[in-house]
Amino acid sequence: MFHIFQYQPLRLITQNNLSSMCLKLMLSRPVAFAQIWKSWFSSHSLLGKKNIILMGPPGAGKTTTGRIVGQKLDCPVIDIDDDVLETTWNMSVSEKLQDVGYEEFLEEEGKALLNFSASGSVISLSGSNPMHAAGMQHIKKNGIVVYLDVPTTVIMSRLKSKQMDRIVGLSPGISLKDVLQFRKQFYKRWFDIRVLCGRDVAAEVVAEKVLDAVKRYQDSELETFISTRSSRTGRSREEDSHKLHFSDVVIQGLALDGGLFVPERGLPKFTAEEWQGLIEATYIERAQVILEKCIHPADIPASKLAEIIETAYGENFSCSKVAPVRHLAGNQFLLELFHGPTASFKDFALQLMPHLFAYCIPRSCNYLILVATSGDTGSAVLDGFSRLHDTDKQRIALVNFFPEDGVSPIQKSQMIGCQKENAWSVGVKSDFDFCQTAIKQIFTNSDFTGFLAVEYGTALAAANSINWARLLPQIIYHASAYLDLVHQGIISFGSPVDICIPTGNFGNMLAAFYAKMMGIPIRKSICASNENNVLTEFIRTGVYDLRGRKLISSFSPAVDILKSSNLERYLHLIGNEDGQLVTQLFNQLENQGHFQLQKDLLGKLQQDLVAGWCSDEDCLAAIHSVYNTTGYILDTHTAVAKVVADRLQDRTCPIIISSTAHYSKFAPAILRALRIAEINQNPLSQLHLLSSYSALPPIHWGLLETLKKTGNGDHQVCAADMSALMSHIETLIQNHFM
Which of 39, 353, 664, 666 has the fewest CB atoms lying closer than 10 Å? Predict the structure, then answer.
């Protein structure tokens, strides 16, 4: 057996074994000595008896990086090719490959790995080691596997320049690109940490990134969450001792003080080189990389996260690009966010979030998810949670509250048709703001939540965009849209773009702002409202005023919102994370119906955001005009954004308009915009009429199938009364969990 053990154990430093120079430094400059000692000790304690195992394709720089990391940690460095394989075989790796052939080589290589052990070392694997399962299981037991993820085009360029001829699997008829793509599945299976390596990143920089990644992996306390209403200076020791992590906030949803959870240290930053490394990546690959940086592996390991992302986006979207970017006209591009199973942008979060939630919750408790929707969230959350494994459905149920008369007929048909054995829709005789406020109040009602926990063993959780796990996946498609424009040659990386988003609850806009903070060059963010234009007035004046405002039903119901929940996260961010200020503002809004930003905060806000609004008449006119000129049908929300973008853009750079829903969901308004005189009230007939136009995009497949199967089934209706809502919740818990 091949063994390499850690160098001489760390000795206690005493006056007897210190050099006179060290002793002098310790006595004369104790602070400097302490810093040197802390640095030395932290590097050695980083490993302990564990190994750092570098994995990646040939040409990724594993050997060079490994030497630098080993030098920094003052520990043994082992190159599997040079120090293990060639020593064991007594011949070069290329000679062995030529001698025994591809399949036998992998087996022999795996056997050598099985007979190898080390402790406290930096190990550089061969490019083909991960293809032998037993060998990798053996070496992974005592190590942290770090994947040096280098873009395929960069690897091909490096290998070509080095004229490497010992690539396992390369043969006539199989290209180098095919070999590298094939191997990715094995790298993804084994790694604990991914380190992004760009084209021109020096090995010294990669080594530092490896060390930083290992430190992050070993310390989940670096990534905790706080409430938007908590004060950094005013937190008690008890609050500091009960740090909340990603899994905690996914389960809890809303903070106990009524605030929303945000990362205490902010979101991770990507370098330009790291973003550029994702230009050729698929949507699923981009999602994996971004979410790995935002979710600590102690909460969800990389391998499990990959499985969840593949489940969410692999087969449930009708377009292989998941969120394609389509040129509309001039400098305007549409980010199509409606290719999911329920035809709206909500699918991006709600195909993913249920699986995150099911993984994070303890197995000993039942959970009831509460959702408030102005339309699209309802069917999306019902569909998402219905795709959980049967064992998860037994302990996770969902109730969806929506304004009974405040959604489109097709949206209502969807929500009713998507009800499952563990998921129900309840119409409320009020508007969305009441539904959303009611849910917040239920969560902060400790008497009621305590009763449910004691009496039924059931906890409440949220799946609205107030839940961090709902907001996080939305960052991905904003970043991906920019990378797609670069990939299509529309812009070069670093060139700015503007974005325009129809928004009422501010979640989609906040996600774009987060993407900007993470390094995507977004210049101007345009908020588009309909006649419920509270957000527009706030962005223009700094005054958020609900006094005398009544919700207006419009053709774009998903933004028929007066209280924007996610605005709280944004104000917390630009307000230097001042929880007391946020608490003051939103308490004033709740109690007095208005608040006003200070002048300096308004200045910060207006550097980030501009806003406009659009009437129903202008919305329908835009749909008609775009169809006549391009043959493309916008949905009503996208039309609102198109109108506002036309008014506020300066045409000096591309503008990405978020197309947040498929027009099929709003067929009556679309048919009216297309000047159809007689409109059949049956939703299925309306879709068949729209399909006769042969427009782009075609009728949504999932929506059509849902309406064919279900029609307009039964659902419960509830009065706009808190006691009535709580009674509904208790009854549903009794029926499902008891």
Answer: 39
